[in-house]
Amino acid sequence: MKKLSSGQIRQMYLDFFKSKGHDIEPSASLVPVDDPSLLWINSGVATMKKYFEGRVVPKNPRLTSSQKSIRTNDIENVGKTARHQTLFEMLGNFSVGDYFKKEAIPWAWEFLTSPDWMAFDPEKLYITVYPDDKLAKELWLKTGVQADHIYEDDDNFWDIGEGPSGPDSEIFYDRGQAMNNVPEDDPENYPGGENERYLEVWNIVFSEFNHKPDGTYEPLPHQNIDTGMGLERLVSVVQGAKTNFETDLFLPIIKKTEAFSAGKKYNANAQDDVSFKVIADHARAVTFAIGDGALPSNEGRGYVIRRLIRRAIVHGKKLGINEAFLYKLVPVVGEIMQSYYPEVLEQKDYIANIIKSEEDRFNNTLNDGLKLLDKTIAAAKQTPDKTIAGAQAFKLFDTYGFPFELTKEQATDAGLTVDEAGFNAEMQAQKDRARAARNQDNGMGVQSGLLLDVKDPSTFTGWDHLNSDDAELEVLVQDQSLVAAVQTGTAQLIFSETPFYAEMGGQVGDHGVILDANGTKVADVTDVQHAPNGQNLHTVTVLAPLSKGSHYQLQVDPTFRRLVSQNHTATHLLDQALRDVLGEHVRQAGSLVEPDYLRFDFTHAGQTSPDELKQIERIVNEKIWAALPISWVVTDIESAKKMGAIAIFTEKYGDEVRVVSIGDYSREFDGGTHANNTAELGLFKITSETGTGAGVRRIEAVTAKAAFDFLGQREAWLQDTADLLKEPQIKAVPHKVEQLQAQLKAANREIESLQAKAAQAQAGDVFKQVQTIGATTLVAAEVNVADMNQLRQMADDWKQKSASDVLVLGTEVKGKANLIVAVSPAGVKRGLKAGDLIKAIAPKVGGGGGGRPDMAQAGGKNPAGIQDALKAAADFLAQA
Fold first, then answer.
1. pLDDT in tens, 29-87
2. CA 486 to chain centre
3. 569 and 658, same domain (yes or no)
4. Range of 172's domain?
């Protein structure tokens, strides 16, 4: 076996499959794109779903990748086991309807055992196969695997519900009995059993069936290969590590954490080791997640980041680290991963700032949590069973980030137990709520073969022309069937050539018409999408019969195209202006380009301020007024990068890319249509800025005539306001409004003064109406005042005059009842409480209330009950 670094192993894997004709797919963002079923990219195949589902046919059916992934279903186990990680890399090779078992099996063996590659000892490798998969077993034997190194296992069938499924074959590495955790004669001591000796390193899925909704299986139109090999596991084997954490992927992070701790060392204490591992794992996960645009929050993937950061901080406390430290590990993570993920170091300052802000915020929360834990322990000591309730333990976990184990440990030290069943019930209830709120369609869609085999070429001519005079109709689809002709209704069409742009990268597809050879309109084009093999698929409303093989004239609506193109150019200007004003951390998180407006989503922590929006808007308009020329060129990716072109993380790029340049201001990878000069946009106006989720902001804007109309509407509203104010000049409206506001404030003050005087006069009469109930004097009356504030003022006047032992006042304000109760100091000493009295009488007005012993108030929906409430007050005192 060769001694290799993690970077060398990753590259060797990719190089091997490149030598087998595979294209290397770059590692996609952890934040899924156009896949609401996933919170995170959680495997290599997750980025290949569109290919396996048949929605898109890849340029090359052979693909390979090292895909960063996050899984969070068992965060609690991270640090306690040898191989649990939240962030991991999955090495994979994929065949989309190309090669199958007879290639995949010998290639896997070659990569692992050949001296040219990993050079594993074949005697240390074991294989498991599905019992009914006789061909796989035969191929492994033919490849050179000994018969006693092949095990049949009923679990070797990959199936996640509806969609592609099939038998799989796993490869295990024998680390020797010295690494085992079960006796040699234990029934689990075999490849595939529950033991530490035989380590699974690779799973090859032979995807050949569709799992149908009714539970039955049918052959796929095309057989596929989907493999997965955890990089961390493979590195642990190559580097002879007991766990994944003793490899070059984690040890530098652990060593740095040692330097922050209070003299703690890794491998010196089992409990400390758990904390070191948790911190190393979570530092990697949050660094990559934030680098890919996710931000801490209280929901979704933002909540996952927040939970990971808080869990790491708690474990830092256990190592004696009492200040922010996690952010200091970001550069360490970046240096480890630099060979394949240079963007981490490029963004290290931004990522570190986000983490430090979260650490600082949580350290205050953590101190509150520690205080609550102390109170919880003290309270539990007073209970008969000396137990901390599960709900309390869950509150410490969910609100303050305390792992259950930490609460349990503290409880044990105090001679207490924790209701673990109650805690688990609370945890399950939370998971059930999350599951109910989440789209559960996280499987792969059932593959459709309808257009997979449609490979007739279709040329897009729409860069330079909006018309095609002689386009042959090659494919017709209606009611999910390929047909030779259509008479009416809705259909999808593919032509030999087309000027119609197909929706991509947020730009909507063109609209327009189809004419026959005589110039008669036969269909309206309402949408254009890409077929699986890349052809432009036109959705049309059929107005006259259409037939395969006939020739037609295609005409794009020129106004629709022009407006969409102008708005697309505006998104590029906006993208760069956002970076200029907010910082280089800004990333596009989605866009929509319509003819009448544009929408642009971007990553940014916090709301964009009004001043920042004005600055962004000004920059875009200055570029429009500068009449910058717009040009584009098709080139290879490396040349495009050297040109300084910005790649949008949501897109996948082929060998050749189109680069759109707007003067020297903006240069981006882009496949859409644009104006020829920024001056065509005329004007740019932001209409709204909102948040759409954790760390994602959305700007909507308009250009050209839509911007003119937007401003015109506001001018009309301003003119209407001027007319109402009888102000001939619009520019004087703000000053006029200020004058009116000042007059209104003065008038309100005068009204309040008059109301106060009226209330005082009313109070003078009311306070004379004293009732004597036993040993208690009572003033109870319904009064006419403006609001609760004046009721409180009357109560203050009553207190100064010592008019009685108890005061009860009621008033109706805007159809609702308000009550106030006051008790004199002498009354309070005798045991009378305003809060008790208000609770007794508030139901009479259909409400409730409370307060202090000397003052309480209530509100209700039934002002007709005020007199009943006053009577109830007298009855209450009579029984007191």
1. 998 876 777 889 898 888 888 888 778 888 899 999 999 999 987 787 888 888 889 99
2. 43
3. yes
4. 6-249
